[in-house]
Amino acid sequence: MTNTYTLAKIEHAVELGTTLSRSWFRGNSKIYGELTPRIFRQTYENDFYKAFRHEAEFSIIENFKRMAPALKSKLPEIEDHISWLYLMQHYGTPTRLLDWTKSVLVGLYFAVSHHHSEDGELWALYPQALNEHNGNFGLPIPRCKILRYLAAELNHNNPQKLAEEIGLNKIPQYPYAVDPPLYFPRMVAQMSAFTIHPRPKPSQTIPDILTEETKLVRYIIPAKCKKKFFSDLSALGITRMTLFQDLDSLSHDIIQEHNILAYGPPKPPRWE
Predict the structure, then answer these.
(1) At residue 217, what are phi and psi to the nearest 5 degrees?
(2) What's the pLDDT band for 260 if we cut at 50, 70, 90?
(3) Residue 6: phi, psi to the nearest 5?
(4) pLDDT of residue 256
(5) Would you state the pLDDT for residue 259?
(6) Using H for helix, E for strand and C for coil, what is the string for 111-123?
């Protein structure tokens, strides 16, 4: 069971980020208690999807590949499976990727920016530990065999043959941490990272395999603290505009700023 604590002050978040400086962070605005990519979540867990999950995942990706050329000119090569997953994830399509950030403040923003009446959660993952569990050290290069397998798995009807073609001795069973190429400005702004997941099996999820708190820990963000966190993050430059960099976000931030009716500069803090 994942070690879980409470985080209630911005100072605690800063201490968390500086202490776990090599960790990745993921914020959820509601309590989920799990680390499951969208394509494998409850929405896709009814009887139909359980029976045809491989077909559903394959269909989603193939439909995206088929229709994307009408909307965007520069696209990955058709067999560059991992780049297609990055692109789909960026535009909100369900994939087997799970978003992380290298910034604790960015992770905290996503934990407090929505569902203000509900507790949120902030996860901290030591990514090298996840990959060591897969038998690799460090973060993968683009041609990493495990990464290539997990990205191509749903396009192949014979997992064992695919593993042999890639040069793996066994089929990867666990999620894998990926430090991706930063294809989009939003990925740079959000300091993006990913985990890529095979189809979930019991005892093979991230919380199942990383049980030490130095490798995976979760913090609950109380609902009553969300408004203060949101204000503190804005003061520190973590806003919707800085993270999403579009005119919709700019408009949102301007409205938020003008909701503050009055402001008088306080005395600056001093330390001995």
Answers:
(1) -145, 150
(2) low
(3) -110, 140
(4) 80
(5) 72
(6) HHCCCCCCCEEEE
The span from the CA of 83 to the CA of 40, in Å, is 20
Q: Cβ-count burial of 267 within 10 angstroms (0-12 exposed, 13-18 middle, 19+ buried)?
A: exposed
25: β partners: 101, 124
The string of DSSP letters for 124-151 reads EE-HHHHHHHTT--S---TT-HHHHHHH
User: 97-128, pLDDT tens digit by residue?
Assistant: 999 999 999 999 999 999 999 999 999 999 99
Q: Which tokens sit at 113?
A: 């920016």
Query: How do 97-101 and 120-125 pair as beta strands?
Result: unpaired
* pLDDT tens for each residue of 21-30: 999 999 999 9
Distance CA 45, CA 52 (A): 10
Question: Which SS3 state, helix, strand or coil, does residue 6 take?
Answer: strand
Contact assessment for residue 153 and residue 159, using Cβ atoms and an 8 Å cutoff: yes
First-to-last C-alpha distance (Å) of the chain: 42
Question: Beta-carbon neighbour count of residue 260 at 10 Å?
Answer: 9
CA distance 149 to 162: 7
Phi-psi sector, 244: left (phi>0), alpha (psi -120 to 50), beta? alpha
